[in-house]
From TrEMBL:
Pfam families: MA3. Belongs to the eukaryotic initiation factor 4G family. Residues 62-182 form the MI domain. GO terms for cellular component: eukaryotic translation initiation factor 4F complex. It comes from Aphanomyces astaci. SUPFAM superfamilies: ARM repeat. This is MI domain-containing protein. The lineage of its organism: Eukaryota, Sar, Stramenopiles, Oomycota, Saprolegniomycetes. Coiled coil: none annotated. Keywords: Initiation factor, Protein biosynthesis. PROSITE patterns: MI. It comes from the Eukaryota. InterPro entries: ARM-type_fold (IPR016024), Initiation_fac_eIF4g_MI (IPR003891).
Length: 219
C-alpha cells in the first residue's frame, strides 16, 4: 500500500488542460458531411425538363362529331374563339368537316344556314380549314344537288346563301364555285341566288371587281 503520508504537503498537479481536445470541425466524421466544393465559375447543372408529350391527332370521325357539336354551339352563342380552340386540328379533314356542316345546315332553319358562312370564315382566317378542301366538299354536294332537292326543294337557294360570305370575305374565288355538272337552267338559277345573296352582305364585296361584275350579270 502506498503511504498517504508521503504525498502530504506535495502540490497536486492539475490535469485540466493536459488533454488535447479536437475541434469538431477537424473530426473525420464532420469532414465527411461537408458538401463537395464547386469550382469557381462552374454553374450547377439541373436536369432539363422533359418536353411535353404531343396530343394524339383525332380521327376523322372524332373530329366531325366535335365540329358538328361546335357548330350547334356557335349558332347559339356565336363564340368563334371557342370554335377555333376546339377545332385546332381540323385542317387535315377540311372536306369531311365542310360536308358534314353543310349537309346538316341545309336541313335546318335560317339561324343554322346564316351561321355557316361566319363559321367557316372564322376557321379559314386561322388556317384551320383550306379553300381546296372546302371546294372539294362543294363539288361533291353540287354533284348530288338534284337528288338533295327531292327532300329539300330549296337546297340550291340555301347553298347559295351559305357560300356567299366565303366569296365576300375572300376565302374563295368565283372559279372555285364549279356548277358545270348541273343542267344550264339549274346553273342559271343558282347563279341568280348567289348574286342576290352577295348583294345582301352590306356592300362587303364593293372592292371586288369580279364579284361586282358577277352580280350585275346575274340580276
Amino acid at each position: 500500500k502506498r503511504n498517504d503520508s508521503d504525498n502530504r504537503g506535495k502540490p497536486i498537479k492539475s490535469r485540466r488542460g493536459s488533454v488535447e481536445r479536437r475541434s469538431s470541425v477537424d473530426t473525420p466524421q464532420s469532414a465527411s458531411r461537408r458538401p463537395p466544393a464547386v469550382p469557381r465559375g462552374t454553374s450547377v447543372r439541373h436536369p432539363s425538363p422533359e418536353p411535353p408529350v404531343a396530343a394524339a391527332s383525332r380521327s376523322e370521325d372524332e373530329l366531325v362529331k366535335v365540329a358538328k357539336r361546335m357548330f350547334k354551339e356557335f349558332v347559339a352563342e356565336q363564340d368563334l374563339a371557342e370554335v377555333q380552340a376546339q377545332l385546332h386540328d381540323a385542317l387535315e379533314h377540311t372536306q369531311a368537316v365542310t360536308s358534314t356542316i353543310w349537309n346538316f345546315a341545309l336541313d335546318q332553319k335560317d339561324a343554322e344556314r346564316n351561321a355557316v358562312g361566319p363559321f367557316f370564315v372564322g376557321l379559314a382566317a386561322n388556317g384551320l380549314v383550306d379553300a381546296a378542301g372546302m371546294a372539294a366538299a362543294l363539288a361533291e354536294l353540287i354533284e348530288f344537288l338534284e337528288d338533295i332537292e327531292i327532300d329539300i326543294p330549296k337546297a340550291g337557294l340555301y347553298l347559295s346563301q351559305m357560300i356567299a360570305p366565303l366569296l365576300a370575305q375572300g376565302v374563295w374565288t368565283l372559279d372555285q364555285v364549279d356548277l358545270s355538272v348541273l343542267p344550264d337552267a339549274k346553273q342559271s338559277a343558282i347563279n341568280k341566288h348567289l348574286a342576290s345573296a352577295l348583294g345582301q352582305l352590306d356592300n362587303a364585296i364593293d372592292h371586288d371587281v369580279a364579284l361586282v361584275e358577277f352580280m350585275n350579270s346575274h340580276k
